[in-house]
Amino acid sequence: MEYGLWSILPPLVAIFLAITTKQVFISLILGIFSGTLILNDWQLFVSINATLEEIVLVFSEGWITKTIIFSFLVGGLITVISASGGVQGFINYLTEKKDLVKDKKGALLLAYITGLVIFIESSITSLVAGTVARPLTDKYNVSREKLAYVCDSTSAPVCGLIPLNGWGAMLMGVIGVQIANGVVDGTAAGLLVRSLPFQFYSIIAIIAVGYYIMTGNDWGPMKKAEKRASEKGLLLREGATPMVSEEATATPPKEGVTPNMWNMILPLLILILMMPISLYITGDGNILQGSGSTSVFWAVITSVTFAGFLYVLGGIMSLKEYIDYVYQGIGAIVPVAILLITAFAIGNVIGYLETGQYMAALVEGRVSGAFGPAMIFLMASLMAFSTGTSWGTFGIMMPIGIQMAVAMGAPLYPTIGAVVSGGIMGDHCSPISDTTIISSMASASDHIDHVNTQLPYALLNGAFALVLYLAAGFIF
């Protein structure tokens, strides 16, 4: 059955409400409800029941359930690592090596490198990079805005490009819905890996941060902030209100624990190494054919189990304390898991209504499929800017983007990359983004000052990415 113009109602409802209310969960629920209304001929009570059933049906797919469990356990792992003193130990190790940092450039490079190597979760990336580098950037009169920019622009881009984390699980999940619905063929892991070179904004953003650190060629509001800090020693603008990092940090170390960076490094190494091993095993020797959901599931269970043995047998905490910290972390991740569930559900509803095919039909014969990646990049960027969430953007835009790519004949891998890059680009520009807020906290910067100084850089990077998506559309 063709639903025509009605097929675009659910994503429009979700996007409009997310923009106006800033409540992504409620917006997604109402987006799902509007879709079930259409599917059930506008029968109110039938549609209410169908909405609830659609959410429950998400768990009928084993790979989705594994992805959600992964998200819960990653929350537990992050909390127990923090409680073990692992994060604090890593911070202490880097800050004690002050002889390695002798100037402003070195202090910023410390934040930059930390942001590149800690890719387990974007918030943790920003918090660790800011906390590690801030004493040194303050010493060498680096503006807090510049530190916030480095933290922010090496968090989400790195997590997107190295998807051995919750980001990878989320993206493989929303891609997997389209595979399960028969829109595209292949495996979620394979499609995601092949799209990584087309995450143009993320790649440009990381390169740009390194360029500004090495050359000092800042411009716009950032140049003024750096001039203020270097000439007057004012790390913050007069009258600015710093956001204190302690408000955003993870669980503090357990009382009496001696901070040790290996308590963080070893469990994370196990998590990271288990990903390719699991993909190899589930893919019968071919990593790209492996099951992404099973791999992240195995990896996080192995890492959490290893951490338990490491901390309990090492006398860092009792078994009860370890379990309590894991539960605490699982509880903290509930909002993310709810977002995942509703994102999967609205992806299914959008698939039933064939929203992407309808949108592609609107431009078919009028707009070449070669423009598909650029169009999707702009749409995802606008949505992420308006809502402040890249993950919510992925949940809505990935099914639309993939369906449009198939219907328009647009290149698939650049389109998937455009969804991810657009979500991250809009997130970097948005004052209501959680990663933007956390980066302000980690650097103790005034939040609006961080947004104002980063925005021109993000827009320029986005313009370069848009040109590349236009080129990719015609070349691939």
UniProtKB/TrEMBL annotation:
Keyword hit for Transcription: no
Organism: Halanaerobium hydrogeniformans (Halanaerobium sp. (strain sapolanicus))
Membrane topology: Multi-pass membrane protein
InterPro entries reported for this sequence: Na/H_Antiport_NhaC-like_C
Name of the protein in its database record: Na+/H+ antiporter NhaC-like protein
Membrane-spanning intervals of the chain: 12-39, 68-94, 106-129, 198-214, 264-283, 295-313, 325-347, 367-385, 455-475
Compartment(s): Cell membrane
Primary location group: membrane
Domain Na+/H+ antiporter NhaC-like C-terminal: 158-474
The keyword Acetylation belongs to this UniProt entry's keyword annotation: no
Gene Ontology annotations for the cellular component aspect, listed alphabetically: plasma membrane
UniProtKB keywords: Cell membrane, Membrane, Transmembrane, Transmembrane helix
